[in-house]
Write a structure and sequence with these properties.
InterPro entries: Class_I_gatase-like, ThuA-like. This is ThuA domain-containing protein. There is one protein chain. This protein is of the alpha/beta class. Helix content is 21%, strand content 25%. The protein has a single domain, classed as Rossmann fold (3-Layer(aba) Sandwich), CATH 3.40.50. It contains five helices and 13 strands. The strands form three sheets. Strands 2-1-3-4-13-12-11-7-8 form a nine-stranded mixed beta sheet. Strand 3, helix 3 and strand 4 form a beta-alpha-beta unit. The longest helix is centred in the C-terminal third of the chain and has 16 residues. The mean pLDDT is 94.
């Protein structure tokens, strides 16, 4: 079986908040267990990356990839030439997977440098009206059960952080695959009530010829902040369906199908 060329781009996001290194290590385990991917980890931390960003962009490796998993932000991915090369790769057909925690990046209002291309690829972003309740129990509903990524997956419970009122800044066409109810009766420790509506936790779109997937679940913080018990663990990665969604999405954005990863049951020993 010919494997899908997947390039996983890892850098600090949101002022170094989310534990993107731990997330990358465990996502790689899931991708390896699925057995469908030829994985290249790009990170300036040598214990995680197969190569650093300078080496990656010194050549034309990005032209060979079929899917880019993006877990970066202004604090690493801010060189315009590199941004343009990523935009071109996706526009010409490479898939793009955007992960939890990237969402405030490239927002000028908080002092970041804008990047329209990344915002269009992501679709939904954290902006002024966006909020989240405490990290805690959530129920995930499947909205498009016939979509290749979701086919056969059942609704599930998880412990995670649910983003509310994310904005489609550029009004790009999106499909919501799954969502979580935000209870307006629940007040977060920040004094913010839930929205009283369904909030998307997995959406798809397009950027040129490239398919995109925005994963709004998967909160992992480096330490306990008092925000919610377990936020500094891999609890948000526990549900089998969450793991399957991520792995299947990586195939779907690359090929438009879910065949090589369909049998993956989500079983893996994470760190």
């Amino acid at each position: 079986m010919e494997k899908i060329k997947l390039h996983y781009l890892i850098g600090d996001v949101h002022m170094g908040g989310h534990d993107v290194h731990r997330v990358a290590i465990n996502n790689k385990i899931l991708l390896e267990e699925a057995g469908a991917f030829d994985i290249l980890m790009v990170c300036d931390e040598p214990s995680i990356g197969d190569m650093c960003f300078d080496t990656y962009f010194a050549g034309d490796l990005i032209k060979e990839c079929q899917v880019l998993v993006f877990n970066c932000g202004n604090y690493r991915f801010n060189i315009r030439e590199e941004q343009e090369r990523l935009e071109q790769a996706v526009a010409e057909g490479a898939g793009f997977v955007f992960l939890h925690g990237d969402h405030p990046c490239y927002w000028k209002a908080i002092g970041n440098s804008a990047w329209e291309g990344a915002e269009r690829m992501a679709g939904l972003l954290w902006r002024e009206v966006t909020s989240h309740g405490d990290y805690g129990e959530a129920h995930i509903e499947i909205d498009l059960p016939e979509h290749p990524i979701m086919k056969g997956l059942e609704a599930f419970d998880t412990k995670d952080e649910i983003f509310c009122n994310c904005e489609n800044v550029w009004n790009v066409p999106l499909q919501t695959l799954a969502s979580a109810w935000s209870d307006s009766r629940v007040i977060s420790r920040h004094g913010e009530p839930g929205t009283g509506k369904k909030e998307p936790i997995a959406v798809t779109g397009y950027y040129g010829k490239g398919r995109t997937f925005n994963q709004l679940l998967g909160h992992v913080w480096p330490y306990y902040t008092g925000h919610g018990l377990g936020e500094n663990t891999m609890l948000s990665f526990s549900p089998r369906q969450f793991r399957q969604m991520f792995v299947r999405a990586c195939e779907w954005v690359a090929t438009g199908k879910v065949e090589k990863t369909f049998a993956f049951d989500g079983e893996a020993k994470l760190r």
